[in-house]
Amino acid sequence: MNHLKEKISQLKAEKNAVILAHYYVAPEVQEIADYVGDSFYLAKIAKSSDADTIVFCGVEFMGESAKILSPEKTVLMPDASADCAMAHMASVENVLKIKEEYDDIAVVCYINSSAALKTVSDVCVTSANALKIVKALPNKNIYFIPDKNLGSFVKQNSDKNVILNEGWCPIHNNITAEDIKAVKQQHSGVQVLMHPECTDDVLAYADYIGSTSGIINYAEKSSENEFIIITETGVAYELQKRNPDKTFYFPEPLPVCADMKKITLQKVYDCLKDNLNAVEIDDETREKALISLDRMLELAR
Ligand code: 13P
Ligand code: SF4
Questions:
Q1: Global pTM?
Q2: pLDDT tens string 176-214
Q3: For the segment 62-76, what is each residue's pLDDT rounded down to a tens digit?
């Protein structure tokens, strides 16, 4: 294993490459990454890095966004089949139809979406900035795609007319209020930190709602020593690393994103060695999708 880590490090230097990893990938992959973070942070790094090659340890939409923001770089995916099911749970036709129906509407696209959906959107958001960006938009009507749960969270916390789309994260949407009640009963009085991809009835139990980074930062700054964490289990690695003396509990069944877990050290090495699974996006798609991603970076500042 160490041998593999050394070989990855050598290849990185030879190719002027950086490794970006999302908090949901396996601990051994987060450990070798140059940058680990939530979707917003990783998109900003992809744009600002001066590396020639980015190895993106995450799912398809993350690699696509990196390539859209940095077309001159080679963006490699350790596993080309690692995808986010929710990224495909909205249709371009439907977006165009809704745009026709309303005068004063902005299409707000969660970054967990295909490049095609980004081409018909006015602005992208992540869970770290969705509320701030929606509030900053001049439009009264918002069509929020693809996540109905993040959309509903935004709707309840802003005065916009947010139109929801039938899309969801299969991992977060599966967590039930019963699961939360059970873990709270086992650890009574412990604060509950949640990701906004959870359903409304689950979010009702939250003491804090935020992105993966938001959850990690909250736990670090808090004077509490125990937390119930309601998101994918990959965040446990960074939580424990930053807070060796604190304890974190997860609900049962454990929320695990099988696609994020497809990324292994061997696949990171293989893709870097042979330039495998390079993300390619045609110019027209890239130019149109870039508008919504750039607008996010602008409005989130
Ligand atoms: P974050 O942007 O909060 O890291 O979330 C990404 C994601 O895929 C959540 O399921
Ligand atoms: Fe997509 Fe959910 Fe996996 Fe995040 S956890 S990548 S939203 S399927």
A1: 0.97
A2: 999 999 999 999 999 999 999 999 999 999 999 999 999
A3: 999 999 999 999 999
The answer on pLDDT for 143 being more than 90 is yes
Burial 57-79 (b: 16+ CB within 10 A, else e): bbbbbbbbbbbbbbeebbbbbbb
Name the β-bridge partners of 76: 55, 278
CB atoms within 10 A of CB 103: 9
Are the beta carbons of 224 and 191 closer than 8 angstroms? yes
Contacts of 12 by beta carbon, 8 Å cutoff, 6+ apart: 18, 19, 34, 272
Nearest CA owner, ligand 1 atom 4:
38
Distance, CA of 122 to CA of 102 (rounded, Å) = 14
Closest C-alpha among 142, 150, 102 to residue 126: 150
Distance CA 260, CA 160 (A): 33
CB distance 112 to ligand 2 below 6 Å: yes
From the CA of 296, which ligand is nearest? 1
- Going by pLDDT thresholds of 50, 70 and 90, the confidence category of residue 1 is low
Which tokens sit at 249? 């509990």
Q: Is 150 in the pocket of ligand 2 (CB under 6 A)?
A: no
How far is residue 43's CA from residue 90's CA, in Å, rounded to a whole number? 22
Going by alpha carbons, the residue nearest to atom 3 of ligand 2 is 257
Q: Which atom of ligand 1 is found nearest the CA of 84?
A: 8
